[in-house]
Amino acid sequence: MERISTDPALEAQPNFESAAYQGWLNALVAQGITRDDALANMAEGWRFKCQERIILWQEQAVEDACILQEHLERENTEKEAEQQEEQREAEKKKPKINDFDAGAIVADVIIPRPSQYAIQKIKSMEYVELWYFSPDGCREASITSRSTSDSDDAFGFAKVDGMVALKMLASFKASSKALQDHDLSWRQFDLAKTSFLVHIEKSGWPEKHQQALALFFTLITNHEHRMRPRGEKTLLRYAGTVHREWHDRLVQNQGFNIGIFNNMLYNSLSDNIWEAEHDESLKLLQNALPATNFSSRPRD
Predict the structure, then answer these.
(1) Number of domains into which the chain is organized
(2) What tens digit of pLDDT does each residue of 115-164 get?
(3) What is the C-alpha separation between 63 and 71, in angstroms, rounded?
(4) What ranges in the chain are assigned the alpha helix state H?
(5) Do 220 and 280 fall into the same domain?
(6) In CA terms, which of 36, 37, 109, 250 is 20 to 30 Å from 133?
């Protein structure tokens, strides 16, 4: 249907006696209709057509209003959807904090926090020396954290909790002061393994792995040979060797049960330590012999 551009109700009735309508008027009169009746018929025909156009105009206005309403509703729907998406994105970027138990209090003992390097190793389920969880290691992490927070340091990208974040590279570097497990004192080892077990639990390690490691450390700290002359030294050597081997084998998909104590390996390490100490004693003795004064003779 052709659109109507103006409201027909606002149109004035034409002058049918004008020259523009003279031919139409003469045709009606020629049919035997009086001039007045012809003019009346022409006016009535115009009014009828005008009324039809008014109805079409009104229908057209209603249709246009519906189309406009649908367009506005579609725009509002799209705008609301965009606002909701922006709100969701803004919510994702907001810092998250978990709820807490209103009746719970802080623990009686708070385990010292190791360095970010050690925590990241734990979260990645990779091998890390127990020294980082010892009092010395945690103290070193605290000192390093304070010193780097106030100084200019290089930054780099690091993956933390599944997200890439900009972090000080120093906080993710291994410490030059870190000791191998077998070089720890027995007290350092005992305290560090407890902290280590707490942190792997916090990081959500598999229960099977946690239990095996807990049994591993329990068997070592309660071993009957601990009170022997080289007992603690041998047990520390066993702990460091087996712990490192366990992680290496896991990476190769050749994991073993670290919670089962291998007496044959322990005895072999004990023999190695005894031989090394024996060889060292001989060297010390040999180095001391030339310094002995054999030129002096007993007095008469």
Answers:
(1) 3
(2) 999 999 999 999 999 999 999 999 999 888 766 555 445 455 555 555 55
(3) 12
(4) 22-30, 35-93, 116-123, 135-149, 186-202, 207-221, 231-251, 263-288
(5) yes
(6) 250
